[in-house]
Amino acid sequence: MSSLLEVSGVSKTFDGFRAINDLSIQISEPELRAIIGPNGAGKTTFMDIVTGKTKPDEGRVLWGERNESLLGLSEAEIANKGIGRKFQKPTVFEEQTVRQNLAMALKNPRGPFAVLFHRKTAQGAARIEEIASEIGLTDQLTRTAGELSHGQKQWLEIGMLLAQDPRLLLVDEPAAGMTAEEREKTTDILRRAAQTRAVVVVEHDMEFVRRLDCKVTVLHEGHVLAEGTLDHVTADPTVIDVYLGRTDA
Amino acid sequence: MLRILAALILSLGFAALAQAQDLQPVLQDHADEIAKPSRSSVSTALDALIASGLPQVTPFLEAWTDKGIWQRDADGMFFYGNAKGSDLTLRNIDTGAETTVSTVGHTELRPNGGVRRVIGTALVQFQLADPDITRRLSAIDSIARRPDADQLIPLLGSIDTEPDPTLKARKIQLANFLSASFAEDVADRIAAIDSLARDTSIEARAVLNQILSVSSQVTADEPTGGIARILSVGRDLTEAEAYERLVAANLAPPTIPPVAIRDALAANVIEGRVGGIPTAQLGTDATRAQAYAALAASGSVLPFVTPQDQSTAIANHTFYEAYDQDDTAITDAARAALSSVETRVAASRFADLALDGLSLASIYFLAAIGLAITFGVMGVINMAHGEFIMMGAYTGYVVQQFVPDYTLSIIIALPLAFAVTFGAGVAMERLVIRHLYHRPLETLLATFGISIALQQLAKNIFGTQARPLTSPGWLDGAWVLSDVIQISYIRIAIFVLALLFLGLILYILKRTRLGLEVRAVTQNPGMAASMGIDPDRINMMTFGLGSGIAGIAGVAIGLYAKVTSEMGADYIVQSFMTVVVGGVGNVWGTLAGASLIGFLQKGIEWLNPSNTLAAQTYMVLFIILFIQFRPKGIVAQKGRAAAD
Amino acid sequence: MTTGFLVTNRSVRWFLLALALFTAVVAFGSEASGAGLISTSLVKTLGKTLCLCLIAVAMDVVWGYCGILSLGHFAFFGIGGYAIGMWLMYARTEGIVMSSLSGQVIPPTPQEVSDAIGSQIFGVVGSSDFPLVWAFADSLSLQLLMVIVVPGLLALVFGWLAFRSRVTGVYLSILTQAMTLALSLYLFQNDSGLRGNNGLSGLQNIPGFEGTSQATISLVFFLASACALALGYILFAWVVAGKMGSVVKGIRDNEARVRFLGYRVEGYKLFVFTLTAVVSGIAGALYYPQAGIINPAEIAPIASIYLAVWVAIGGRGRLYGAVIGAALVSLLSSWFTGGGAPDVNLGIYRIQWTDWWLVLLGLSFVGVTLFFPKGIGGLFDYIVRKPS
């Protein structure tokens, strides 16, 4: 198991507020990792830094076997390196069909002229079908994405990530606002995805994390507080103090 | 002339002795010179008049130059006369007794221009010492207008006895000018010139420039005299200009311009040929030159001066500028004084430019601050903001139709304009904008629709011609600091108004309940609502406030520019620039943006004063580039929210 | 190139059919064909309207599809007009000058010809020298190239600067408006080399066709405009049809998402911005020979805003909507402001449409934005249900 993403000593300050403070995390490939922490622990900022949306004040973000630095690359370049990101709020293209949404995400040349002269291929169509069945939207392919239910939109977004064929998936609160049944299905999709690639799930919901059954990193005030199995970290007294103690209260 | 001066000084001394005498006998002694004066003969008469030292002399000289003196043909007596039709009212020169007679048998004295100037100079010498201050003032003005070497000594003589301190300073200044130009002694002149180095007035610079006046010279030998500079052909003047000077100085034959060649060729066509070349082939310069050379060889036209001839002639001569003033000590002193003056003037110009920039910045600030509130704080694009400015200006105009007192009308117009545009802003927010809060681009378009409609409406009501918005009398004129630095009161008023608004808006936003609620709604509308703040009401009030300020800005701008239905459109893009450059959502940002744009625009205009359109073009280009490098503006919004 | 979209996209076929019918009716009814049912001035108005429809389609692509509310596309239109206008004016003046000089005994030198043309063209701004921008004015092919290259380059440079620093939304709109303002202010100067506020005139006279009647010339330009509109429509329908359309619409709806999918959003925006600018330039090059005159006032920021108004009223995000909006509003405008509309007598007040049309337009525009964000084209959705 080699390290795919290595974040080390990263700090970021917003207007005097330390969102990330000397954060170091390593993700391997394949791996399923859950990141938990109270509000303001720096989970979203961590994702922003990895995907190039936010530039850190200090620290390193290294990627892949050749340890390339991701700092200074644009969002699109980082995405093309193989990092996919799902937002907290489902963001799919609501005016386009499910098939168009997935087709846009398919791993193909991304330049304007390549896209302009792009022809649909049988391979591409087959891949779309495959992903659609993976996320359970085979019957919905011709529907407009805006008409889907909340849970379906979340799955479509995960499907778009899978279509990108990334090596690392960053998933922000995938279970928010889902029914119990939908959560179960989401867990399945993520665990299957994690068999061939790295998947990092940021989540609030302990039950959902337990079901993922994976290594857990606890963030607090922009810093790693504890790391290990869920049972291990929940037994950690500092974790109980800052996080579980509060949410249970 | 010196005799006159001597006589004048004498006369001043003996004025008391001469008091009781009559002027008429003196006049009669020189009746011929006075009745038919010439420039040379008149001085004899003037000498005598001045020597008499009589108080009647001054009014007599004044009347004489004004064609107000008549002579009775019968006995040659002189009178003040005033002709009305054929009636003539005569007034005795000494007693002032009046009689009305017929113009027949009387002759009006009509001294010619040259004589009048001589009389005027003599008169000035009298007037300089006149007890009446207005007389002395007009004498000083007359000297300043037409400085003359003769005036120097009487002017110097009158300084010591001058009781009025302002006038005395003015006399000293003027005496300096005259000494610099006319003093007999070189050392005196240089001393006077040196003293001008501290004077930045236009008059002083004119005096120095006069001393330094040059004439262009050309010579085949070594240049002589006071050389201002040697001109280098190609840098200081073009070859064509240089050759023209040679021609003008008869040092070279004139060139034959292409038009003259063509005309000469056309005049010498023989059997379809010129100089043996068929006319059809004369469509190039080369064949024309050939044909012309053939004509010149036969002697029928002047020989052509080739470019080589011209270059040789130019190379054999030296072009230079020589001072009209021969004494190099004087020109050196004047040059040093002028350069010192110019340094001072440049500093003053810079200060003046800064004041101009400041007042332009105030105007931009006033125009933009309302927008900064609606756009910056609420994120609403109001393209009709310019039309609110226009509405404010027209409100002022309408008020002035009913209230004729300008001061009172402006005092009424300011709050009324605020009320009108506040109402318009609230109505617009209620009817249109609140439905579009989540679609900013569409707000831009909808408010643009309102802007078109309002503009046309104003055109329908007030017509297309500019309407006046007259400022009160006490705002007329300018505060003059020196000949270079001056600023009109209206601009000062606008600056003060801008400062007031800056303070007012900072107060409202930072210190009042409304400001607190506005900031709360801006930062987190949901949270604000849950704390009992009604976002609808706050949005309405904020929009009304921003619009109301536009109305007041309209009155201010209307006082300084003209009121037309399109005046808003002139300010809208500038206002947006101001807000965007300054940084959205911040009053200080707007101030910084207005200052940057105001000063920069004046700066660019100064670099290229002939072309304000070009200045605006460069200004806009600068803003486009500026936004590239600081997309958030000068005063960027901080925090995580700004990163999105 | 995939042509499948022509088969699947019914609106393109309907549009082309309607345009073909309209063109045929005008062509056969025009004075040039002998029927004389449609006056030459009407043919010109209709030809100009087609050009406006073309730029409206371009505007719809950049705004309705890509979400960039450009307030600068009319500047590109104007540049196209200036580029072709320079040749038209130069070539025509050259013809006049040559014929007046040919009577002389001594034939003129090239310099004399050039000076004479220069003083004819620039006498009005007190100059007779040819500015640098006129370097290629004697060549039709080079000026035609400039119709494409100049707007394209300007859009490329401006767009690169703006998109690179991620200026979006209303900021971008204001920035494009500033660009338009700078250009029009520049052209207003007498030393801009383009005759200041006099602009270029006499463009309706086509050099080399002095013997041809205006009826024929206007019909030819009408047909050319119709062809340009048809080709432009097909081009843009193709661009927005396939995966390109998906990405472009994606950028409009959620720029960040597209970025995280690995697309370089700046490149796409730049492509759309530049392509539409070039088409706008072509539309302008066809428009101004029919209008006969171009001056800097045509480029003023207000013109670009009207363009946005047409597209909004016609309906964004559908190409035929832009055509409907541009045709309807511009024709209505000329009808109302030209005094064609009858006054309305209210007893106490007489509404003269020459004065009140803009008020009506402004308010109806507010109404459309508030109540019909999809514009007139949106009404078609009720009639024609697009197959999904």
The beta-strand count of chain C equals: 4
Q: Residue ranges of chain C: pLDDT <50 for 5 or more in a row?
A: none
Percent helix of chain A, as a range, is 25-40%
What proportion strand of chain A? 25-35%
SSE run of chain C = HHHHHHHEHHHHEHHEEHH
- Write down how many β-strands of chain A occur, each being a DSSP E stretch of 2 or more residues: 10
Low-confidence stretches of chain A: none
The number of helical runs of chain C is: 15
Distance between the termini of chain C: 23 Å
Helix content range of chain C? 55-70%
Q: Quaternary status of these chains?
A: heterotrimer
Through-space gap between termini of chain A: 39 Å
Task: Tell me the radius of gyration of chain A.
Answer: 18 Å
Any overview of this molecule?
The complex is a heterotrimer of chains A (249), B (644) and C (388). Chain A has 249 residues and is α/β, with parallel strands linked by helices. Helices cover 38% and strands 26% of the residues of chain A. In chain A, strand 1 (3-14) and strand 2 (17-28) form a beta hairpin. The radius of gyration of chain A is 18 Å and the shape is globular. Chain B has 644 residues and is of the alpha+beta class. Chain B has helices at 2-18, 24-29, 31-35, 42-52, 57-65, 113-128, 133-145, 152-159, 165-182, 186-196, 202-211, 239-248, 258-267, 285-297, 307-315, 328-377, 385-402, 406-431, 440-462, 489-511, 513-523, 525-530, 535-560, 567-582, 587-607, 612-629, 640-643; strands spanning 69-72, 78-84, 87-92, 98-102, 106-108, 214-219, 227-231, 273-274, 277-278, 318-323, 478-480, 486-488. In chain C, 69% of the residues lie in helices and 2% in strands. In chain C, helix 13 (319-337) packs across helix 15 (375-383). The radius of gyration of chain C is 22 Å and the shape is globular. Chains B and C meet through helix 13, helix 19, helix 24 and helix 26 of B and helix 5, helix 6, helix 7, helix 12 and helix 14 of C.
